[in-house]
Design brief:
This protein is an alpha+beta fold. It contains eight helices and 22 strands. It folds into three domains: 73 residues, Thrombin, subunit H (Beta Barrel); 111 residues, Trypsin-like serine proteases (Thrombin, subunit H), CATH 2.40.10.10; 109 residues, Roll (Pdz3 Domain), CATH 2.30.42.10. Strand 10 and strand 11 form a beta hairpin. GO terms for molecular function: 2-alkenal reductase [NAD(P)H] activity; serine-type endopeptidase activity.
């Protein structure tokens, strides 16, 4: 009986609450319990310290090994270039000459042949009074300018001695380059010699704005685009494939307004252009580019609809230079001024539809095609004039 009374008293106490102490969510929360062990849970493996290896090859992937071998072989043929530019020509009359006490510019280059010819950019050595080459082993030597071509932004310098075992870099056939393949740049960005960066080929057949003449500007065609990091000081250095062959010469970068550093888009003069221009620079000191002698505007559907043109592709001739190859055969330029996208255009001229039966879709494409010819070559242009198509044979002359 006493046990029954004790149980009843305990039940009453557990059902009572004090009116002066309100219940709280925390007080009402259930007591936490450990989560149940699921049948699929497996015990964690014991922590093990990494084991050192004496074989360095095991530590690298096949791709890394390829890059290491490429760098070890190719970097020996890549040089840093220091230039001294005489500023006296820019001084006002009567001003005493200023002698630079050190380099005023810097770039890169690579050995082209066993005779000591080194390829770099025209803009690296433009205006230089002294050129110094620094080899991969740190040795320096003065170089002589052999030839330079602003229209391809290529130049050749020569040294009289080379480090033992230094071998030239082979040129690839850049016509076989594909978007997506690996691209390796070696040079001296910001003066840091023998720097390797890796990316891919991002685009082909690009065109860069080139030097200007009194009657207009020219373009650098067939340029390779890459996302391999290129910065000031990389100019003139090689862009390589994984076989260590030169597919281009690093020449420019795209930058935002006010910028100067790499932002993901770099450009290289193609090896195809190098193979054509550099031997002429070595032999003659210059290269003659073929010239048609016209200014032109790309025609697309929007442009054609805007001005009521009879075709929606090709290039519209604006100005024909006097005594140029185009002028000699009677190609016609524009006669009416207009504005398109805020820029002036000339309407009424001939429209080039094809070059040697290759359909033309843009001015960049036509410039790239013409650049593959030699001075004195003939090309057949298909043109649209006054609602009719005709063919005109033009003999290409040297660009003035």
């Amino acid at each position: 009986m006493r046990r029954i009374m004790s149980l009843l008293l305990l039940a009453v106490l557990m059902s009572c609450t004090r009116p002066d102490i309100p219940a709280s969510p925390i007080a009402q929360a259930p007591t936490p319990t450990a989560p149940p062990v699921r049948p699929t849970d497996a015990p964690l493996p014991p922590i093990q310290a990494p084991m050192p290896t004496t074989n360095t090859e095991v530590a690298f992937t096949e791709y890394e090994q390829q890059l290491i071998m490429l760098y070890q072989q190719a970097s020996q043929a890549v040089v840093s270039i220091d230039v001294v530019v005489d500023q006296s020509a820019n001084l006002p009359p009567g001003h005493p000459p200023i002698s630079p006490d050190g380099p005023t510019g810097q770039g890169s280059g690579f050995l082209f042949d066993t005779q000591g010819h080194i390829v770099t950019n025209h803009h690296v050595i433009d205006g230089a009074s002294q050129i110094q080459v620094r080899f991969a082993n740190g040795a320096t030597v003065v170089a002589d300018l052999i030839g330079s071509d602003p229209d391809s932004d290529l130049a050749v310098i020569k040294v009289t001695s080379l480090p033992e075992g230094m071998r030239p870099l082979p040129l690839a056939d850049s016509r076989l380059v594909q978007v997506g393949q690996t691209a390796v740049a070696i040079g001296s960005p910001f003066g840091q010699p023998n720097t390797l960066t890796v990316g891919v080929i991002s685009g082909l057949g690009r065109t860069l704005r080139g030097p200007s003449r009194s009657f207009g500007s020219f373009s650098l065609p067939n340029v390779i685009q890459t996302d391999a990091a290129i910065n000031p000081g990389n100019s003139g250095g090689p862009l390589l494939n994984l076989r260590g062959e030169v597919i281009g010469v690093n020449t420019a970068i795209s930058v935002s307004l006010g910028g100067s550093s790499f932002e993901g888009v770099g450009y290289a003069v193609s090896a195809q252009t190098v193979a054509r221009v550099v031997p002429a620079l070595i032999m003659y000191g210059r290269y003659d580019h073929p010239w048609l002698g016209i200014s032109m505007t790309t025609i697309d559907t929007l442009f054609a609809n805007r001005f009521g043109l009879p075709v929606n592709r090709g290039v519209l001739i604006g100005v024909v230079q006097a005594d140029s190859p185009a002028g000699v055969v009677g190609l016609r330029g524009g006669t009416r001024e207009a504005t398109y996208r805020g820029l002036p255009v000339l309407l009424g001229g001939d429209i080039i539809l094809a070059c040697d039966d290759v359909p033309i879709f843009s001015s960049d494409q036509l410039i790239g095609l013409l650049d593959q010819y030699q001075v004195g070559d003939q090309v057949v242009l298909t043109i649209q004039r006054d609602g009719e198509q005709m063919q005109v044979t033009v003999t290409l002359a040297a660009r003035p």
